[in-house]
Design goal:
The protein is an alpha+beta fold and 189 residues long. The protein contains five helices and 13 strands. The strands form three sheets. The chain has a six-stranded antiparallel β-sheet, sandwiched between helices. It has a four-stranded antiparallel β-sheet with strand order 10-11-12-13. It has a three-stranded antiparallel β-sheet with strand order 1-2-3.
Length: 189
Amino acid sequence: MSTEPTFERGAITFLSGRLTLKEAAAIFAHMPYELDYVNKNDEYVWYSPNPWRDNNRLQKRLTHSVLGCHPKPVQPLVKQVLKALHTGTKDVVESPQVMDGHRVLIRYYAIRDAQNQYLGALQVTEDVERICELCEAHDFEHGIVDGKIIDGVSAASIHANRLQKGEQLADIQTPDKTQDAVSGASIEQ
């Protein structure tokens, strides 16, 4: 099977599955992050059409040098990032920032073909404010559903490991309470 995508009857077939053009466009428009693509000649050639983006401004930048999309004071940094991606010194460059009061993570990825030839750079800009809040509240220590801590995955994994070790199901204790994520109080199920 070919690893190169093919296009036939209005759909793109990838190694990982098939999408119509309409589906692909909708996916790009609904992603909760912004994508921007710069080709191997450092020309700004594509952006994700998210509803909150300024399409007029971005349309004017298409096919122009990516350096022209940035203020002069940051152009040396842009050149440095592009050089690292072009040469393979780095495959990913991360830039955490605060924009409009939100924590944002911008990642620049070197895009390469199967022969490792540089095709361009993908910029992924993601508002990580909610992720940071979840980390600060230690919500990743447990699964949270509708404000309640649910240890279903953890409990299932523990049960599976114990069963593999030969323990009987009756010997395994099952929690009968969940915990309110806000107050920490136990809630009867």
